[in-house]
Amino acid sequence: MPHFAVLIYSEDSAHALDATDEDLAEPNAHGDALAASGSLRAAYAFTPRDLARSIRADGVSEGPFIDAQQAVAGVYVIEAQDWDEALAIAGTNPEVRGAGGVEVRLIHSGGIVEP
What we know:
alpha+beta, two-stranded antiparallel sheet, about 20% helix
């Protein structure tokens, strides 16, 4: 069955180093629901953009690669029969109801590398 990456775009990540359970209640509930549905294969929440480091030919800088209104706050991988199912699953992300949204991309290749 195909795998799809869901990139979460938000004003910033809710997963600050000092985030409380209350701060994370909504994203964690969404992740729990995806896991319970059987469609979730992997999930990664990123820290806020001010903790990012960017690498270019001229060196390393602090902050995101691109300064934009929204940043990638996390990514998860789902398994779905087809695009319609993948979009339906991704459309349940809480960011879709707010100022952010999600981008869904079919995964061509790769996977988790075991040590």
